[in-house]
Amino acid sequence: MAKQNTDRTTIDLFASEKRVGRPRTNPLERKDQLKANKRNQLKRDRANGLKRIELKVEQQLFEKLNQLATESGISRSELIEKMLNKQVSQFSTN
């Protein structure tokens, strides 16, 4: 059997040959790409006047927030922001 360059089903003939994959579009390693993307995201957030808040909650509350967000068709962070805005406005009117 002759080796055909277009034959990709005969694996044993091509075991040592590198397969052509998706071309590398970024010279950075994946880890460095993620760092750069996160840094750029934080810059965009800052430029839009957004601040980051971290919050630790119990598993039940986390699941409830996810469920409410899914039912509302919004992200969890949007849901939490709406809840906080509503609560803050209630406090400021009292």
State the gist of this model:
The chain has 94 residues and is mainly alpha-helical. The chain is 53% helix and 0% strand. It has a domain of 42 residues.
Describe this entry's structure for a reader.
The chain has 94 residues and is mainly alpha-helical. The chain has a domain at 53-94. Helix content is 53%, strand content 0%. It has three helices and no strands. Helix 2 crosses helix 3. The model has no long low-confidence stretch (mean pLDDT 85).
Q: Can you tag this structure with a few keywords?
A:
94 residues; elongated; Arc_rbn_hlx_hlx; mainly alpha
> How far from one another are the termini?
87 Å
Regions with little confidence, pLDDT below 50 for 5+ residues: none
User: What is the count of helical runs?
Assistant: 3
Beta-sheet strand percentage? under 5%
Helix percent reads 40-55%
C-alpha Rg, in Å? 25 Å
In total, the number of strands is: 0
Sheet of most strands: none
Q: Shape, please? A: elongated
SSE order, one letter for each helix or strand: HHH
**Whole-number mean pLDDT:** 85
* Helix/strand structural class: mainly alpha
Region (Disordered): 1-47
Biased composition (Basic and acidic residues): 1-20
Pfam families: RHH_1
Protein name: LexA family transcriptional regulator
